[in-house]
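Tokenise the fold.
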Amino acid sequence: MREKETTQLRKNAKRLRSDMTEAEWALWYHLRAKRFCGIKFYRQKIVGNYIADFLSLNPKLIIELDGSQHAEQIEYDRIRTAYLEEQAFTVIRFWNDEVLRDINMVLDVIFDAIHNDFPSPSENP
């Protein structure tokens, strides 16, 4: 990626961090400061040519919140998700209204995604 593109991507990520949606704020409240399962999450983190809404490096998990505009960009989101998965991330997506209506369900799905990546002590060789 060229330096100009990288600079623009960084500017976009910074802008997105300061202009979070209501749904992003609602989820960030639970994810920030290692509040959720003791895991460090970042918001609006750059991965390649993309900006992930919420990202954890351990486990390699990306959480995307989608607004109504995503209904018209299904192919773009498919390509983007495929790229992120090629980088060894698990990607889970929620609609903004899911976060606002049922945050506990969203947190349960995230919890399950985290713990399915880690074998229980009885599963270790």
Q: What stands out?
A: Residues 3-119 form a domain with the Endonuclease; Chain A fold (CATH 3.40.960.10).
